[in-house]
Design a protein that fits this description.
Number of strands: 10
Strand order of the largest sheet: 5-6-1-8
Radius of gyration: 26 Å
Helix content: 40-55%
Structural class: alpha+beta
Strand content: 5-15%
Number of helices: 15
Length: about 300
């Protein structure tokens, strides 16, 4: 994505976003073996790869169906073999002098105008179809300004790398799932799942230079965690006792603890916020997506967010 950003800043503001249709399932065994043979002297290895490709797949009834094309979906060797197959595409794009980036079967070509992009898309489609026997999904392929295209879950808007809206919506949906009050697990297990998912998501999407939604997301996430604690404490006496021990005013603790209002509403009252403070939740969590983002972009200024 940083390489794509360099190309965009150099004036290549249109993207040829070509989608390969079922790339793993369409790899030609003959073409693949022809590309492997010059680089592998041991014929036993070639025979083993051939057997791997022709091993077949099990259908829904357990019967083995032969595989005359394609590499096994989910196989540990399949991404490597697909990369070997698409190496010809890289060399062809380099020979033509195109600016491009590719990860596995997902690639994007940067050009300077809509018209040149359409020419490139047509010529690359012919190359993939005729030379590599791969199909391009015309319905999902397009030539458009970079800001209207996505690559690996990112886009570039005004020269800045951003995650796409669908990626962020999925992130929020998963956080909502992990903080559902009806999920009958301990808070330690809930926090463990949150930490792992948040850290993994930020390790990938943390290169985004857009963090404004994270400010509201942190407050929303803390409120949902307070709601989970409120549901877990259950009884009025238990709720009041916890709030008083955590420092909430006694009068407000009794009022809130005996209230019949919804969990989501009570998670934002003065007593729950004075009791379950941001610092208290951070010691339990941590639950700050913003701090994870800061740790990626400004590691020297960020305080530890996970142990």
């Amino acid at each position: 994505m940083r390489k794509v950003q360099v190309y965009v800043k150099a004036g290549f503001t249109y993207a040829v976003d070509a989608d390969l249709s079922k790339c793993f399932a369409r790899v030609s065994h003959d073409l693949l073996m022809a590309r492997l043979s010059p680089h592998i002297d041991d014929k036993r290895v070639l025979r083993l790869i051939g057997r791997y490709l022709r091993a077949g797949v099990a259908d829904e009834h357990g019967a083995i169906q032969p595989t005359s094309v394609g590499v096994p979906q989910g196989g540990p060797l399949s991404p490597l073999l697909t990369n070997v197959m698409l190496d010809d595409l890289d060399k062809e794009l380099e020979r033509r002098g195109h600016r491009f980036a590719r990860y596995a079967d997902d690639f994007i070509i940067l050009v300077k105008s809509q018209r040149s992009g359409e020419r490139v898309l047509a010529s690359i489609t012919r190359f993939l179809t005729q030379q590599l026997k791969l199909a391009v999904n015309e319905a999902k392929s397009q030539v458009a300004p970079v800001s209207e295209c996505s690559f690996l879950g990112f886009t570039i808007i005004r020269g800045k790398i951003r995650w796409t809206d669908p990626s962020f919506r999925e992130f929020r949906r998963r956080l909502k799932r992990y903080t559902a009050r009806s999920w009958g697990v301990s808070m330690d297990h809930r926090f463990g799942c949150l930490r792992r998912y948040m850290r993994g998501w930020m390790n990938y999407y943390g290169i985004s230079e857009y963090c404004r939604p994270l400010l509201d997301l942190d407050g929303w996430l803390r409120r949902r965690v307070r709601m989970c604690y409120w549901k877990q404490w259950r009884r009025c006496r238990t709720r009041v006792g916890h709030l008083i021990r955590l420092g909430a005013p006694t009068k407000h603790a009794f009022t809130c603890g005996s209230s019949r209002k919804a969990y989501w509403h009570l998670a934002r009252t003065l007593s729950t916020q004075r009791g379950m403070t941001d610092r208290w939740l951070a010691d339990k969590g941590p639950l700050s997506v913003r701090e994870l983002w800061i740790a990626v972009h400004y590691p020297d200024d960020a305080r530890p967010v996970d142990q």
